[in-house]
Amino acid sequence: MKSVWPLCAAGFVTAFGAHGVASGLGFLEPDLLTLGLLLALYDGAEVVLKPVFGSLADRVGPRPVLLGGLLAFALASASFVLVDSIAVARFGQGVAAAAFSPAASALVARLTPDTARGRAFGRYGAWKGIGYTAGPLLGGVLIHFGGFDVLFLTMAGLAVAVALWSLTVPRLEPLPRTGQTVLDLVRRLSRRDFLRPTAALAAATAALATGVGFLPVAAAAHGPAVTGAAVSVLALTAAVVQPRAGRAYDAGRITSPRPALLAVALGFVAAALVPGLPGAFTAAVLIGAGTGVVTPLAFAALARSTPEERLGQTMGSAEVGRELGDAGGPLLVGGLAAVASLPVGLLALAAVITVTAWRSPAAAR
Questions:
Q1: Is 215 helix (H, G, I), strand (E, B) or coil?
Q2: Torsion, CA 123, CA 214, CA 17, CA 4, rounded to 10
Q3: What is the pTM of this model?
Q4: Do the Cβ atoms of 179 and 240 come closer than 8 Å?
Q5: Using CA atoms, how far apart are residues 20 and 151, in angstroms rounded to an integer?
Q6: Closest of 46, 51, 48 to residue 317, by C-alpha
Q7: pLDDT tens for each residue of 73-106
Q8: Nearest to 101, CA basis, from 66, 60, 149
Q9: At what angle are helices 32-60 and 62-83 packed, to 10 degrees?
Q10: Which of helix, strand or coil describes residue 274?
Q11: Nearest in space to 180 (alpha carbons), one of 318, 46, 58, 316
Q12: How many degrees, rounded to 5, is the angle at CA 358 between CA 189 and CA 248?
C-alpha cells in the first residue's frame, strides 16, 4: 500500500489544479463570459482527453503516462509566468491532468490486491476530495500574498515534487490485449457494471461541488467564518469517511452505494427546508459522509469489473462522468435558483440523486 501514497498526491494535484485558480479568477477577469470560458478550459480538456490518455496508459503502461502528465502540468503552470496568459496555462494544465489522473487511478487498481482495493481507492479519493475542497482556500491565500505568479509556480513545484516521488512507484508493463473495435468499446462502456458505478460517481461529485458552492449561501447571514466552517465540515467528513468506507467494502460490510446516495439526497433536503445553521451543518455532514462512501465503492466496483489490460481506458471514461457531475450539479442548482429559488434547486438535485440511488444495485464482488 506504500506505493499508493504518491498516487494520492497526484490525485491532490489534479484536484487542486482544477479548483485552486478559481478563487481568484474573478479579480483577474471581470467579464463574466470570459470568466466562464477560462473556468471551462481545464475541465473541458479533461472531459475530451481523459479516455484518450487512459487508453494510452493501457498501451504503454500507466507509469510513463503518470510521470509525463505531472511534468507537463509543471511546464504548463510555469508557462503563466513566461507568457502571462491564463488561458494557455489553464488549457495546458487541463491536458496534463487528463493524462496523469486516469493513469494514477489505473495504477491504484493494478498495484492493489482485489481484497484491498476499496481501502486504496478510499485513500486516493480522500486526497482528491481534499484538493477539490481546499483548493479555493489555498489558492486564495497564495494569490493574496504573492499574486497569480506565486500560485502557478507553487503548482509547478508541487507537480515536480510529486513526479519525483512517483519514481518510487513500480513500473508495470502493459498487459497483452485482444483487439478492440469501436463497437466493442461502446458495448463495454454501455454495460450496467460500468454505467451504474459511473453514475454514482457523477452524482457524488455533483453533490460535492454543489455543497461547496451553495451551502455557504444557506449560512451567508452568519458571516464568512461560519460559511467556511460549513464547507470545512463537509470536506473533513468526506476525507475521514472514505478510507473507512473502503475498508468496510473490502470486508463485505458495505455492498451498495444506495444508502449513501440517499443520505446525500437527504442532506440537500435539509439544506433546502431547514433554515440557517442547523440545515447547513446537517447537510454538510450528510453530504460529506455520503460522498465519502460512494467514491471508493464505485471505483473499486469499476476495477473489479474491468480486465486489467483495459483499466486505464475504463478509469479515464469514468472520470468523464465525474467531470460532468462536477459541472452539472452546480449548473442545475444555479439555473433553478435563478428562475425559482435556491431551495427549489437543492430539492431538484436531491431528486436526481435519489433516482440515481434507486438504480444503484449492490456492487459486484
A1: helix
A2: 0
A3: 0.81
A4: no
A5: 8
A6: 51
A7: 999 999 999 988 888 999 999 999 999 999 999 9
A8: 66
A9: 150
A10: coil
A11: 58
A12: 80
